[in-house]
Amino acid sequence: MVKGNVVLGVTASIAIYKSLEVLSRLKKRGFNVRFALTEEAKRLISPVVFKALTNNEVYDDVMEELDLGDTNITHVSFANWADVFAIVPATANIISKVACGIADDPVSLVALATEAKKVIAPAMNSQMYLNPIIQDHLNKLKSLGWLVVEPEEGDLACNTKGIGHIASENHIADAIESCMYPDLLKGKNVVVTAGPTSESIDPVRYLTNRSSGKMGFALAKMARYMGADVTLITGKVCLDTPFGVNRIDVESTNDMLTALKKEIEKKDDLIVIMAAAIADFRPEKMESKKIKKEGNGKFTVNFVENPDVTVEIGRFAKSLGKKLRLVGFAAETHDLLENAKKKIEKKGLEFIVANDVKRDDIGFGSDFNEVIIIHRDGRMERIERSEKLKIAYEILRRLN
Ligand SMILES: Cc1cc2nc3c(=O)[nH]c(=O)nc-3n(C[C@H](O)[C@H](O)[C@H](O)COP(=O)(O)O)c2cc1C
User: What Rg value do the Cα atoms of the chain yield, rounded?
Assistant: First the structure.
């Protein structure tokens, strides 16, 4: 599935290798990529590498016209071809040039000529990054609609630590991919719960479930792509935080409830999507020391029921006079529709997303899902098996 065309502008930062890592992510996500390089970037990595990895012509000389099969001159052709134009990495030099409308190299030329969505990932030494001139130029680009993928604190090439380390390849690829989606949720606050909760038996052992968190993370990522302000409350998972998403890690069901209440207190108007697989039961008592074998061949734990988090937050929001739109998930192994319908009423949901976790080609751990959206009025919509990110889009566009 081809998602779109991306021109990656590459400049002469020590983080130049990142452009190739971002290329790899974009190719996996189905994008076509062409490269434009500055003269100085060419001196750090040969254009041959960029050409070989994309199988596309590389624009690396403003005075040389490439034969791209159209009548346009090269910078216009690149500019028109792009759905997204991204500068990765971006030097202080290119940031300043682009902010001032200078166009004397392939990257700044395409930047000025294109009407595509624009992304920029700065990389430089801390003093350069924090220099008010660079901050002014970045603010100007932001005000003109550029999506700036802010650098991180980290080890810098000049043997110091500080701000200026280029963002991760996943975050840069997320930022680029986000440009392909409409801003349907702009101005909305979305909280997504994800992953399993886990309940401790003693300091060493806990009980949990098979949720990988992938569906919840896909929802958080897509809600952000669609312009929402997103908080992700997650149990233990091995997944990267999506770009631009505020993440809160929790363990138990009660921790998740507390975290949700805090978010409700902060905002007047919230959409909450309950994609987490919340433990229904917890051990009656958590032992303070590791439990030893008694040698009698048995081990018994008494369980008590956990609160129904969705019902609780509905009540909590009402008591504070806050507006809450709730979406639930029903991961069932049997009587899928029957169980899902009961939950809509009991939990005060706008709609519920039902999926069959018995199937091993979808659901827990898989990158794919197939779901049925069941509305309050009984209407049902099936979303055929597809990537969880696509399913997330289908769920979220119903909330705009
Ligand atoms: C090894 C090396 C690493 C560099 N790393 C950076 C960097 O990370 N960020 C930056 O703004 N400039 C960096 N520079 C300085 C730029 O290469 C210099 O400003 C150059 O003129 C930028 O050209 P360009 O923006 O046209 O690619 C580096 C220079 C060298 C030699």
Answer: 25
Please give the pLDDT value at position 359.
Answer: 64
Choose one of 44, 93, 158 to mutate for the ligand 1 pocket test, by most ligand atoms within 8 angstroms of C-beta.
93
Atom of ligand 1 nearest to the CA of 164: 8
CATH architecture of 4-178: 3-Layer(aba) Sandwich (3.40)
Task: Write down the catalytic residue from 100, 158, 179, 238.
Answer: 158
Question: What residue's CA is closest to ligand 1, atom 5?
Answer: 13
Q: Which CATH number is 189-399's, of 3.40.1710.10, 3.30.930.10, 3.40.50.300, 3.40.50.10300? A: 3.40.50.10300
Q: What are the start and end residues of each CATH 3.40.50.1950 domain in the chain?
A: 4-178
pTM to 2 decimals?
Answer: 0.90
Sheet holding 84-90, edge to edge: 31-37, 4-10, 84-90, 117-122, 147-148
For residue 91, how far is its CA from the centre of ligand 1 (angstroms)?
6
Residue 1: per-residue pLDDT: 47
Give the rounded distance of the alpha carbon of 3 from its chain centre: 16
Q: Is 158 a catalytic residue?
A: yes
Closest CA to 234 of 200, 261, 269, 260: 260
Summarize pLDDT for 184-204 with one digit per residue, the tens. 999 999 999 999 999 999 999
- The percent of residues above 70 in pLDDT, for the chain, comes to 96
Structure tokens at 326: 């709730």
Separation CA 31–CA 176 (nearest Å):
10
